[in-house]
Amino acid sequence: TSALRVVGDDAATTAIPNDLQAFWMPFTANRSFKARPRMVARAKDLYYYTPEGKQIIDGTAGLWCSSAGHSRQPIVEAIQKQAAELDFAPTFQFGHPKAFELASRIAALAPGDLDHVFFCNSGSEAADTALKMAIAYWHARGKASKTRLIGRERGYHGVGFGGITVGGIVANRRVYGSMLAGADHLPHTYNREKQAFSKGEPEWGAHLADELERIVALHDASTIAAVMVEPMAGSTGVLPPPVGYLKRLRELCDKHDILLIFDEVITGFGRLGAPFASERYGVIPDLMTFAKGVTNAAAPMGGVVARKHVHDAFMTGPDHVIELFHGYTYSAHPLACAAGLATLDLYRDEGLFERSKALEPVWADAIFSKLKGQAGVLDIRQLGLTAAIDIESWKDAPGKRAYVAMDKAFHDEGIMIRTSGDCLVVTPPFIITENDIAQIADKLSNVIASTAMPS
Ligand code: PLP
Fold first, then answer.
1. What distance in angstroms lies between residue 290's CA and the mean position of ligand 1's atoms?
2. Which CATH code of 3.80.10.10, 3.90.1150.10, 3.40.50.10490, 3.30.2270.10 fits the domain covering 5-68+351-450?
3. Quick one: which atom of ligand 1 is closest to the CA of 234?
4. d(CA 225, CA 204)
5. Is this complex's ipTM strictly greater than 0.85?
6. Does pLDDT of 451 surpass 90?
7. Which end of the chain is more exposed for a tag (fewer CB within 10 A), N or C?
8. Range 73-349: architecture per CATH
9. Cβ distance 353 to 273 under 8 Å?
């Protein structure tokens, strides 16, 4: 029949359309998904629920973003109240109080003099905003030749042209032409031979930051605006920074008068047991992006935090003139600001960053003791409440084993996990308990075992 199939305890919200074709899904194998959908219709705290009502552990905090768990009441109420009170106001030449309040809260949370917050709606917009700010900063300082952007292999900075230019994921770049002119890349920091099964930051690899010297020698510092890296590369399978690496990058950027940008879209708001990774590592970038956890993902929001010297370089010229020709209709959208304020309150009131920090050793021990040594496990990387498990590929079918593992995890084990090539990635919400952690490790072990041979 062509009627809607209606299941679950709340028919109005759990209807599954039987035509799945119209939605062209992002970063998805559309044909495989539509042949065997992994659908969720409801979420509460640590769990998703399928339209049939089956409980699924959220092993990925959504997409590394629902850190306090789902549909949390204070955030829900804040959004509802805001929608009734002020649904929208432009922030080009006008303002609304919650935008200023949230900016102040984020500035207070950010380390050092990272004091000025520019809002956008996603991590991709945040990355492109930070790159544009860096180039415009040098222009404002009278050094307009400093336009080159340096990223890193295996980096992910979203999907805008700036982000994919400095990013280092071949699949995200291959078919999109020549990118922005003049970018270059540091080498990535992963070496299985030297780092396999390191818990936390690997000892080997700080010297890879020195590759910046080679890039400067090639292009000259007078052409380079900024270096942009994730403190921990997330999307390419959790690559923690080698001990001392980020400090070294900071020193070299200072030496050559190059801005350092940290993309903290994943690492921000507690994922590594501190408000931001820059605090964990005692390294303050000139610009820092954020998104995801700022609203616990209950509303889209991203942004860039700038240090005082970056912001102040723009505050010149006649004071009726716009200082930075950049912004989005929905920059500091009232619903996102309300969600952000309620989220920061929740993180504080429930001590969730501290909880994330306290759980890190429990998490690492559970993952390592359950999976290290299991057949087919090639490496495990872990930092904060993240873990990535490289599994042996099926012959002649790279990525297929992890795809099947992710599908089985959902349908057979009742857990949402992510993949990156033949790597399984888990990044749970901070509200997990020690019991949940043990369950997650068991379920991972089960799907690794059950995908040992192609079926
Ligand atoms: N930067 C980093 C480090 C990310 O991990 C992501 C998303 O995972 C992005 C940027 C892009 O964020 P969005 O998908 O919100 O555009």
1. 9
2. 3.90.1150.10
3. 5
4. 28
5. yes
6. yes
7. N
8. 3-Layer(aba) Sandwich (3.40)
9. yes
